[in-house]
Amino acid sequence: MTSTAVLTLSCPQRPGIVNAVTSFVYQHGCDITEHQQFDDVHSGRFFSRTAFSSVSGDIDVERLTQEFAATASSFDMEFQFGGDRQPRILVMVSKMGHCLNDLLFRWRSGSLGGEIVAVVSNHEDLRPMAEAAGLPFVHVPVTAATKPEAEARLLDLVAEHDADLVVLARYMQVLSDDACRALRGRAINIHHSFLPGFKGAKPYHQAFDRGVKLVGATAHYVTPDLDEGPIIEQEVIRIDHTHDPAALATVGRDAEALALSRAVKWHCQQRVLLNGHSTVVFR
User: Fold this and answer.
1) Which of 12, 50, 172, 259 could staple 217 via S-S, CB 3.0–4.6 A?
2) What digits encode the pLDDT tens for the residues 122-137?
3) Contacts of 280 (CB under 8 A, 6+ apart)
4) What pTM value is reported for the model?
5) Given the residues 164, 227, 240, 254, the one annotated as active site
6) How many whole angstroms separate alpha carbon 274 and alpha carbon 204?
7) Beta bridge pairs of residue 221
8) Is position 244 annotated as part of the catalytic site?
């Protein structure tokens, strides 16, 4: 049971959708506290997020899901009800700790929107940070030879911790296509993104050599297409010629932490809806 809930949905655009949603909420003794909608004129699809609370008692999300099915079918809707339970988050890291540190701070201050339940890494470097926060730290080494076994262990850990979301907080291993498909829609990655983009080793040194004026970062869902998943959030910070590679890296870490934390929070609050290769984000 829950006292507040959220309904997210997408469907082909046609008259009557909002009326059907609001009438359903009203008929079940609930009051709408927030409603946002978007008509994608290019795809002809409608997207909405409706938050509501009970005026008479607890909300049974499972019952609402069953009873809304007929309405959803008549409009060809893809929909989901969510309660007020915070999603459980499993964070994956390697050696760089700035994103993990930021996520831990926001989690402990109550502003992340989800509950971090474990930290998994292919290195031991960040064990002290995780354990200082009272979290289990699981070391899963990865080599070319052991990658299938390591990914199987990862998916086992997701199940063991009942994790709703996996966050790759500068986890420096590429997930296989099978792992990406298993985590579809519930794994978020962060990576540096420059204008223009720099790939390979030492991206901040490449950016310095080219005299870039903007440093950025992109948070996106993980897909088999490397770093090309649906984008949730991007952060850009202006810099100038006085920034050497070390300063650029510092600015880049700030951008990565900001973009990732926003993406995680919006996902946890059911504010992100997939729209093909893109997203609709109800901030």
Assistant:
1) 259
2) 999 999 999 999 999 9
3) 10, 38, 40, 47, 272, 273
4) 0.93
5) 227
6) 31
7) 188
8) no
